[in-house]
């Protein structure tokens, strides 16, 4: 499975954070991985996806603080939930994941925004991440 496919699965799990309680997330993540049909992950990939998802979940207070600070004029609660999930994944990668170069994290976030977001999502995501990188 390619890194892009792995990231797409992680994004879909991060999206769940807005809809489920913390104690339900493990079962929902497992349900997602069991039910996914297109580009289904093997056991090793599923372990990587869940591991990164849980790291993002653990880092959520720091990630959300950074997003709140850099998305002036936008409260997280008002953001499009797709854009918020993309931004959370990208900010985690920028701040915490040393395996992912910053440019790759931004580019992949913009690509996710093009695929899953609205018409303005790619430019919004790119603008917020540019501010995050500047203060990093």
Walkthrough of the structure:
The chain has 136 residues and is mainly α. The chain has helices spanning 3-16, 25-35, 43-58, 60-70, 81-95, 102-116, 121-135. It has one domain (3-135): NusB-like (N-utilizing Substance Protein B Homolog, Chain A). Helix 1 packs across helix 5. The longest helix has 16 residues, at 43-58. The protein is globular, with a radius of gyration of 14 Å. The mean pLDDT is 88.
Topology, element by element:
Layout: H1 3-16, H2 25-35, H3 43-58, H4 60-70, H5 81-95, H6 102-116, H7 121-135
Short description:
This protein is an all-alpha fold and 136 residues long. The chain has helices at residues 3-16, 25-35, 43-58, 60-70, 81-95, 102-116, 121-135.
């Amino acid at each position: 499975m390619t890194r892009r496919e792995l990231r797409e699965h992680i994004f879909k799990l991060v999206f769940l954070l807005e809809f489920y309680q913390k104690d339900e997330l493990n079962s929902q993540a497992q349900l997602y991985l069991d039910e996914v049909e297109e580009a289904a992950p093997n056991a090793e990939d599923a372990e990587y996806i869940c591991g990164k998802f849980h790291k993002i979940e653990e880092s959520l207070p720091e990630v959300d603080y950074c997003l709140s600070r850099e998305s002036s004029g936008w409260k997280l609660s008002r953001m499009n939930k797709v854009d918020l999930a993309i931004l959370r994944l990208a900010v985690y990668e920028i701040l915490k994941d040393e395996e992912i170069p910053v440019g790759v994290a931004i580019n992949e976030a913009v690509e996710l925004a093009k695929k899953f977001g609205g018409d303005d999502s790619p430019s919004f995501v790119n603008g917020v991440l540019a501010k995050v990188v500047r203060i990093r």
